[in-house]
Amino acid sequence: MFGIGDAISDWIKGLFIDGIMANFTGMFSDMNERVGDIASQVGQTPAGWNAGIFALIRTLSETVIIPIAGMILTFVLCYELIHLIIEKNNMHEFDTFNLFKWMFKTFCAVYILTHTFDIVMFVFALAQNAVNSASGVISGSLDMNIAMADIAEQLAVMGVGELIGLFFESAILRVVMKAVSVCVFLIVYGRMIEIYLTISVAPIPLSTMANREWGSVGNSYLKSLFALAFQGFLIMVCVAIYAALLQGIADAESIHKAVWGCMGYTVLLCFILFKTGSMAKSLFSAH
After folding, report:
1. pTM
2. Which residues contact 8 (CB under 8 A, 6 or more apart)?
3. Three-state DSSP class for residue 213
4. Residue 256 three-state SS
5. What separation in angstroms does the CA of 265 have from each of 110, 190, 257, 260, 262?
6. pLDDT tens-digit profile of 250-269?
């Protein structure tokens, strides 16, 4: 009788142990995949991330936005010329050098407008170099299977009641981690969509840079562009911190502490990733 009871108890324990192991295995798989994919995603330039979308954005910009930017540039340059003429007592004290200065400004403004995408690509190439350098510095594994290699041994000595509780606990955490992994996906891919939207109208703000008063529009745009580009570097720093924190999970006293600790770090990573956009804008004084 006792042999049958023990066999049934072992069978039930085996079922829950297998379920818990399955939950633990799948709990971080999506998250680890997303986090491991961050370096390759944020290290891409807009042209390299999706060539098709970039070609579409560039075509729309050159055919729709640049003509509008050309009209704005014409207005700005005319305003600048009028201002130079009337600045010195309605040409009574007009300096011929001012006309050459206006011509030089015109040349620079037209050059910037006709090379808008070259300027944009330079900004993101600079940021990509920083991100790629950061990815080479990041060390440590994001794989929780290494940190919890002895989980099966800890489960084997637990009672049926504790295994049932841990099973439902791990099932709930698995759902939470799935949601967090989706949030990471939205952050990384949403940033790239924001980049495409920002560069699609690049000629308009850059067309204002020839004038002192209107130039603040172009300066603010460039600050926002640098903030978007170097947000990827901040994301890589977050991943580096996350990888370092996970190394302490292996020293947890119990499975419960290890799982909840890892989930806490992952939720914290998600929260900080959401903050990287505002942090980057704050660093570059972008609005």
Report:
1. 0.78
2. none
3. coil
4. helix
5. 50, 22, 12, 9, 5
6. 555 677 777 777 778 878 88
